[in-house]
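Morning run. Coffee first, then this:
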Amino acid sequence: MRFSITVLVVALAAWVAAITAAGAAAMAAFGSLPRQGITVADAAPFFAGDTTEMGRFAAGRMLQPVFLAGDWVQYAAAALAVGCTARLLRLGGLRGPRAARVALPVLVGAAAAILAWRAWSMPAMTTDLLAYWDGVLANDHAAADTAKARFDGAHRAAEAGLQLQLWLVLAALPAAVLAALPAPARTPFQDGFRG
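And here it is:
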């Protein structure tokens, strides 16, 4: 059981790290590039000197592989976390406080469900993002604006889901540790004292 508990805690920690690393990279790039006045030669005609929007465009293109890698780390971590949680429940390996034993599968399951929804919605978002980029590079405002509007709506929902997912996984970490604690020793009074 110790191995499963160790893998569970490591998987949850990796899951948190993947979410926070992608979030930190996004905050850094989207916070700094639009203010730096950068120019993307291929996109310059579309943005017509608007270096703020060009900086956002550059940040998005730069970070897309980072977000994709972070998602794959999350998929692997979620699979390990769900598998270990199910194994520990099935084999009775969780003997800690009842609240932690109940909370752990709920938190891990809810976080995994949100991740599954994000994975399901990702192809459509990626299609819209690529259509936006293509529209920008072709200087096609109608196509770019339509694709960006669709992407922005889906992105807001995905971002809210990701934030909720982060809180669920953060809560699952201490729940896993508490649920894995050994069962408290029974006192003679609990076993029925025989004098």
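The CA atoms of residues 21 and 34 lie 20 Å apart. Good start to the day.
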